[in-house]
Amino acid sequence: MNQPQLRFHLSELETFLVVVDEGSFSRAAERLCISQPSVSNRVKKLEAVLRVKLLNRTTRLVEPTEDGRLLAAAATEALDGLFEILGQLRDRSEAARNRVVIASTPVIAATFMPRIIHAFCERFGDLQVLLRDMPYAQLLRAIGEGEADIGVAAIDGDLDHLLFRPLASENLVLVVPARHPLALSPRVALEALLPYRMLFLERYTQLRERLAEAFAQQGAVLEISTVATLPTLLGMVDTGSCITFLPRSMAQSNARPTRRIVELDDFAAVRTYGSIVARRSVPTAAVQSFREHLHREFEPLLAQAALVYAQPI
Q1: Is the same domain home to 184 and 161?
Q2: pLDDT grade, residue 88 (50/70/90)?
Q3: Widest CA span of the chain, in angstroms?
C-alpha cells in the first residue's frame, strides 16, 4: 500500500518536540541555539504540511493540541529508536572508540590546536587525534553529519542541532594600513570610520550586523564588502584600499609593518570561541576526555598569545 508523501524536514519535527518539552518558544530557541522566529517558522511549516494545528499559543504558555500530543508521542518514540540504533552502529567500530576527529577553522587550527593536541597525546598515547582544518560552513556540516567528533570555532548565527560550549572570548580590534589617516591615533571614535571603505571576512555576520546598527545610529549606512579568507583580507589592507576588524590575537599574530591596530572608544565587539558537537551524538570516552582537555587548555593559550604578540602592528 502506497503511503502519502509528507515533505517536511526532520529539523521541523525536532523543533516541535522541543517546544512541547519546554512549553515555550523562547526557551526552545535557547535550547536549540537558534532565534525565536526560526522556531516559530519551523513549527508553522510542519503545521502547513500536516494541515493541522499542533500547538495552542497563549501569552504565558504553549501547549500541544490533541493532534499535537498524538504527533509528539509517536515522533518521540520513533526518533528515540532511530538515534539509539545510530548510536549502536557507530559504537561498533573499535577504531572510532580510540580516535578523536577534530574539525577547526584554519586560523585556530594553525595557532592553538597543535599545542593542545600534542599535550593530550603525550598524556594519552593510545589515542589517535586527527585535526582537519576547514571553512566554517564545512565544519558545521562535518559535525552534523558525524564526519568529525568536535568542532572548534567561533560561532556565527544559529547552530542547527549542534551544541556550542564556550571556550574563551576576545575583543575585535580595528586594523588599518600603516599610512592610513586612522593610524595616526591609537584610539578613535566610531564616527571616524564613516568615510572609509571596510572589508570583512564573510563569516563575521554578527559583527557586520552590530556595526550596521551603530552606523545607523550615526545616520549612516554601512557598505558591506566581504572576502572568504584571511590572507586575501590582509592583502587588501596592505594595499591601503580598506580597513577591517579582526580578533586581537589574530591581528597581533599577523603583525606587519604595513598594518596598525586602532582601538575604538565607543564600540566593542567580541568573538566567542567554543567546542561544537552534534546534539544527538553519543560521545566516546576518548571524545569526552579530549573535549575536557580542550576546555582546560584553550583559554590559557589565548591569554598567552595576547601577551606574546602584545605589540602594535
Answers
A1: no
A2: low
A3: 77
In 10 A of CB 26, how many CB atoms?
12
Using the structure block, give the residue that is written with the C-alpha cell 583580507.
Answer: 233
Containing structural domain, residue 76 = 10-91
Please name the helix (run of DSSP H) or strand (run of DSSP E) that holds residue 102, with its range, or none.
Answer: strand 99-104
201 and 85 together in one domain? no
131 and 244 in a single domain? The answer is no
pTM summary value: 0.63
Q: How far apart are CA 278 and CA 110, in angstroms?
A: 23
If you search the block for the grid coordinates 537558534, which residue do you land on?
Answer: 34
The Cα 127–Cα 262 span in angstroms is 44
pLDDT in tens, 235-291: 999 999 899 999 988 888 888 899 999 999 999 888 999 999 998 888 888 999 999
Closest CA to 280 of 16, 84, 42: 84
Q: Is residue 4 domain-resident? A: no
What DSSP designation does 5 have?
P
